[in-house]
Amino acid sequence: MALALNEYGRPVIILREQESKSRLRGLDAHKSNIAAGVAVSRILRTSLGPKGTDKMLQSPDADITISTFFTDLSLSNDGATILEQMDVDNQIGKLMVELSRSQDYEIGDGTTGVVVMAGALLEQAERLLERGIHPIRVAEGFEISSRIAVDHLEQISHKFEFNATNIEPLVQTCMTTLSSKIVNRCKRSLAEIAVKGVMAVADLERKDVNLDLIKVEGKVGGKLEDTELIYGIIVDKDMSHPQMPKQIEDAKIAILTCPFEPQSLRPSIRLTLIPLRSSKLYVSKRRSTSTRWFKDARGCLVGFPLSPVWINLSDVGATLVICQWGFDDEANHLLMHRNLPAVRWVGGVELELIAIATGGRIVPRFQELTPEKLGKAGLVREKAFGTTKDRMLYIEHCANSRAVTVFIRGGNKMMIEETKRSIHDALCVARNLIRNNSIVYGGGAAEISCSIAVEAAADKYPGVEQYAIRAFADALDSVPMALAENSGLQPIETLSAVKAQQIKENNPCCGIDCNDAGTNDMREQNVFETLIGKQQQILLATQVVKMILKIDDVISPSDY
Ligand code: ADP
């Protein structure tokens, strides 16, 4: 800072740019970064596991989200909602958000666990730095340990056998994922829905699952138990006339983007009313013309000379019309009379989806309609919900696509959103198992087993890394400790008892009995996690901690 005088002799204070910034170096920089990371991880720690607490988040516009795990609303999946809604300013905090998001992107589950693990590693790192160990040595030690842990996970993993007819193992694994969510009271049915959905779109030979083919939709109302899997797509629309058929089998669907204007439907001449007795004669006389006849309420036949639209629609064999545009009451009435069910005001995106799923083509002009352009679906039905006027159109067993829809029902929007996120997790777990059917045991069992293996390996390293490797083993214990703590158990006592049991029985399946099921053998409790998910957690957490440890200079604006 310097004091100077301007041309009028007035004093001016000159601030040099550097002076408006604060700077932390060396251990102080490390400590400040670690403190930021640990603070974020502590918030999530209490949410881990089946007994984890929920968080209520209020956004500035007063929208409320309750979540047991971290989700990113904009991505609609696990990872960062809570962190994002907390509006994490700190750059290290943002790294933790990214960490959780990466886990979500790669695996889809374990987003809380990965942040808890990273927080524990940071806490351990701080202790080592205080003891004078260089951060790079700590990072190297963590890297070695993570490789040991990942290899050990491979060794204790089991192959989970399942096939298209025996999906029970997959259901069990999805149930583990769902058991720690708010929706856990319906975990069996939701897990079955998720697995059946994944199996419907999976290519078991190539071990590939395209999750884009699974749409997750929700509608407020009904119970969570009413959530269903639809082998097709649903559209939030109904038939344009209440008297139109509610169910059409083997539907041939005309998908139109041309306006259904009354002129195109209206008869070009006035209606001809003929008493019924003479109708036979009349009809036979006029059969050659394109007039269609209907009996009206008085028993008279009403003749409609057909416009090209009608001829086209019926000639090509359409049994359902889906139109991007609306049509007035008159057109609607005519469609109903023609026994041609129709749906109007269908959005462009939905129209495209219907076209893709049913193998139809979107037709911009009536004249262009041909039988090959019709979409085909085994069943189209309209379903009404409760006493409300809410109706939806189910287009099932579509010709061209294996696309399925998970249709979630729930008491309020918050519940539906949470269920969507939970279903996403379950879908990802099932997909991961199809890609790689190795599993490890949950409830902290895998972490305890890795901790024992890493601890044992530490002795083989004569250098300073040994300390970092031991610290890594301690950090691994933090996951079962958090699970125990969140379940109201004594964390240290429970952990040491389980660890002793694992060593004594040489059984890597012993974990924390969070639900007080009477056994801590996770195999008996059916608490599994995918091997790749667990490995990814350890690798990602180590990676981010190494990244944080490499920062030794923090320059920030002074108001931070
Ligand atoms: P994440 O977002 O990381 O998946 P969760 O809150 O879903 O976090 O908790 C997952 C942890 O809870 C895993 O370590 C899993 O093994 C454990 N877990 C899930 N169900 C049970 C159970 N019934 N008993 C013990 N641990 C469980």
From TrEMBL:
Pfam families: Cpn60_TCP1. PROSITE patterns: TCP1_1, TCP1_2, TCP1_3. One of its GO terms (cellular component) is chaperonin-containing T-complex. InterPro entries: Chap_CCT_epsi, Chaperone_TCP-1, Chaperonin_TCP-1_CS, Cpn60/GroEL/TCP-1, GroEL-like_apical_dom_sf, GROEL-like_equatorial_sf, TCP-1-like_intermed_sf. CDD domains: TCP1_epsilon (cd03339). Belongs to the TCP-1 chaperonin family. This is T-complex protein 1 subunit epsilon. It comes from Centaurea solstitialis.
